[in-house]
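The instructor's notes for this session suggest beginning with a concrete chain rather than abstract definitions. Hand out the sequence below and ask the class to guess, before any prediction is shown, which regions might be ordered.
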Amino acid sequence: MLPKTAEYALRTVACLARDPEQPQSADAVATQTKVPRRYLHKVLQSLVRGELVQSRSGPGGGYALARSPEAITILDVVNVVAPLERIRHCPLGLP
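After discussion, reveal the predicted structure:
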């Protein structure tokens, strides 16, 4: 099961993918995705840091995808906001 943050990030990316050329305000994204505004801000910051979304300030600014929707996978989004735990060593302590 995916964490809530990953679900919200997937909703956000899907929303921005509807019109990838047109930046959207955080308020518009929050309304369309039903993600709480304060939580959305955290999600958007993570997506910007992960270079999946870009932020544009000023008039006509907002948030838009940093690359084409076809180039972004579900795993890309999940790994940016809630990286999946990888097994790094044997849980039994064996080499």
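Then share the key points. The two ends are 30 Å apart (CA to CA). The longest strand covers residues 53-56.
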